[in-house]
Amino acid sequence: MSTANPAISVVVNTTDRAHALDTLLRSLHHQSYRNFEVVAVVGPTRDHTLDVLAGYDGRVRVERCPAPNLSISRNIGLAAATGEIVAFLDDDAVPCRTWLAQLAERFADPALDATGGSVFLVHPNRPMIQTRLAYTSALAEQVDVRDEALADLPPAGDGRFWTARMMGANMAYRKSALLDIGGFDEFYEWVFDDTDIAVRLAFGGKSIRPVADAWVYHAPASSRNRVAYTPVGRWWVQTKAAAYFAIKNGRTAGESGRAIALRILHLFHGHWQWLGEMQRAGQLTFGQMMSMRWRELVAVGQGTLAGLARPRRLLASAPSAGAADESAAAFVPFLPGAAPATGAVDPVTGRQPVITMPEPPLRVCLLSGAYPPAAYEGVGRHTNLMAKGLFELGHTVHVIARGENEQVTFYDGAYVHRIPTPLTRYARYQALPHLYHTLNRAHAVHERVRQLVRNDGIQLVDSPVWQVEGIVTARSGLLPVVVRPQTATRQVAQLQREADTGMRLIGELEAELIAAADYLAPNSQATVKALRDVYGLPASARYQVVPHGIEPVPDESVRPFDVAAPPASLTVLYVGRLEQRKGILDLFGAIPAVMARVSNVRVVIAGADNSLSDGFQARHGMDYPAYFARHYAAAAPAVTFLGAVSEEKLNELYQTCDLFVAPSLYESFGLIYLEAMNYAKPVIGCQAGGIPEVVDDGVTGRLVEPAAAPALAEAMVELLSSPALLREMGLAGRRRLLERFTHVQMARGFETIYRAVLALPAGGN
Fold first, then answer.
1. Most CB within 10 Å of its CB: which of 33, 398, 556, 672?
2. What's the pLDDT at 324?
């Protein structure tokens, strides 16, 4: 039997993980599929799990499991389920928005008995793909991650019988199929329950077809069996289960006794060696290692004996058998009415912004090649602050960033999808490497966007002009694309007088992306002017200026200049890449003049040298620090070049400097000035680009003409010579930031644009 809208029972087995369970239940409000119930099977809990469930009285059916045994708990949930489909979900996991909708769609095929999707471990310190299109042999040889259903075939293991399998955090079955084989084998108290059920279903001729989609985001919580993200755990339980599994299923599959014995020995030896490695690495004491090795020895004996001499503990004969008679309860929908407008939930910490939402939260995808914490470049930093602000407003945010390997983490309010760039297209452009990589990257990003549409129902994409990562999506018409124009390649090429063919073609792609955008979100009026001057932006283009914003540091971290106790030496800070466009040569020219008039000054320069890329090294035969040391030798002892610094170090530099200087020839906005103002530091910039929209000349700092070293020196001397100005301008900058330039204020601007775009008629661009 199969229906187009089947009733689904979501079974959650839980013991002593109330916080994780609460996170999961709150996240289920965002499911797009409505026809489901939740059955929570609670083990012998010692925490406030029942209090959490009391808040869902009438919406969650609560069953009790007498033993800390996962398979018994699963069978109790199976017996209590009233849905045609039973979906198992770990209590420390959060499913994607369309998880149940995708499962229902799969089960529309009456021949399907079991399916499940991918599982991503999303803790920011431990990202990995836990399972995708997995399979196993009857000897417990497992391949957990494959890119497609036909990959890695034939299997490399020794087993003669292989079948697809799902991970317990994300698996769904036709209830009748599970009952046909007697449910879960209750010998498995913790692990191998999911693998064993797959093999037994296959033995019974059932159809098992996992999918790469139907994602679940997993943030493992500690339990009685293990301490999450540590080597501490009852790992011998795995050995016992594996030995039992290999015997029971290996025999059924026709494996020889020798093959089964060798497999058990291999599994036991692997754990034995692993414990020794942990002891040598200092993760276990010698006594702990020996104790755990003894338990491994006992466990392999227990598993072998049970596998050889004891019958399986299935529903008809197992401790949970009595529960099978209690399945007459009515189906109780988890979402009985209209879905409440609740904000996004952090799957790692469980945090959910407390905010009144008059409209449903948005689901947006932000693009950013570089992204924290791997990189804190300009666009990446801005995108990160957008994500933080949008999360605080209750919206679900996904970010697509560069990565060597595919992974998903939840970081600073967003699901961050790091994906590699397969170079499989545009072979004819290999002679233009920048263009070649840019085009391939745009296609890789678009494929991830398509996956996010299927799994998380994203409504729109927000792409910076820089690196044109959104161009394929914008041209595809898949969903609306908002474009953030900032300083772009064509502008940089003009500023640096470059005529590289690859950069020219990237500039053409930028123009194409801007033209294809459904809406533009420039960061300043200067950027609007640049769009008209550089790209010929038509007057009919839809746009709204959204100034950058940053996250205010706590008041106790702010360090305004102390007039009563001034420092022995004054520190001037420069932050940014060392390149012509950032005005570094003008700063070099100003430093000697400043030191001639202010004796107790030192200059700290933080940022990566970019002399190779901007052509400086080719013209002068040296990088910027070497150039300064040679041409300004007298001032060199008072100047420190730090190179690229960490985010923590950068914040320390802002906090401890007395004056911030960044004489850029052009900035579309100037986020660095806000970062200095955050710590109540006066700033000096140039009358260029969007900088005057950030720095209030004479109030929060000084503005000088670009490429004017004498004027820059004069402004620096004016402020460094006046402790009162250093303090007053610094405090004025902090006030200006709090009034106009916070990340939440910025996010509200983007929210307004996004809702306007979604209200446009289809094909409105």
1. 672
2. 45
